[in-house]
Specification:
230 residues, 4 strands, alpha+beta
């Protein structure tokens, strides 16, 4: 009786015979299908370039081919490891999600390369559904979204505590992180980090700041962060 988690290459491995075309095509077809599934999961609610998506879809059959060619040969395995280590120095750092998808694609290639197509399919289904669930539910998101507030004031206005009463009314937390001069010293630019109590009252908050700073330039937005990397 066939077990879903048995290797389709068990008979060839046990008898020591060469790999036949049938099991090879089964493993390759599964690698291509699962690679396309991984690429589709990566694009779920995420921007992705076409080149990366295509590469992600083709990675499982490529890894599968390498595993099948090595087939227990120590010398070939060492050579393959050396070749793969060179790829790292030709690649730019990736985001955490990109690296996780690449690891999943490589794991699928390893599984299909050893004939465990059932294990590969079930793993992609479980991990893919978990990833979609985390994305939909907002798992790991920062609920208190911190914003960057930049206020321009005239040099005649003492910036020390000048907006504290407004901040107390509209924000949960605020912090002055930088002060710099502008326009030949006739203006000051204040950089704050704030967390609003109610995002719906952002306009009222900015209007009160405009009345206090003489209607000079004010900007409020998300903090520009570096790309998440592993």
């Amino acid at each position: 009786m066939f077990n879903l988690f048995d290797s389709v290459l068990t008979d060839a491995t046990a008898s020591g015979t060469a790999l036949s075309l049938g099991p090879f095509m089964i493993c390759t077809a599964c690698s291509l299908i699962l690679g396309a599934a991984i690429a589709g999961l990566y694009t779920f609610r995420s921007y992705a370039s076409k080149s990366f998506v295509v590469t992600l879809a083709l990675l499982p059959p490529m890894v599968q081919l390498v595993i099948m060619l090595v087939n227990g040969n120590l010398g070939t395995g060492v050579a393959v490891m050396g070749a793969f280590s060179l790829v790292r120095f030709r690649s730019v750092p990736g985001s955490a999600r990109e690296i996780a998808s690449i690891f999943l694609a490589m794991a699928v290639g390893l599984a299909t390369g050893t004939g465990y197509v059932g294990v590969a399919a079930v793993s992609v289904a479980i991990i893919g559904l978990a990833g979609m669930l985390y994305t939909v539910t907002g798992f790991g998101e920062n609920r208190n979204q911190e914003k960057e507030l930049k206020i321009t004031i005239p040099e005649s206005l003492d910036y020390t505590g000048v907006f504290d009463d407004i901040f107390q009314q509209y924000t949960r937390r605020w912090e002055l992180v930088q002060v710099r001069t502008a326009n030949m010293g006739s203006l000051y630019r204040l950089d704050y980090r704030i967390i609003l109590k109610n995002a719906d009252k952002e306009k009222a908050f900015l209007d009160e700041l405009r009345c206090r700073n003489g209607n000079l330039e004010i900007s409020c937005g998300r903090i520009a962060t570096a790309r998440e990397e592993l």
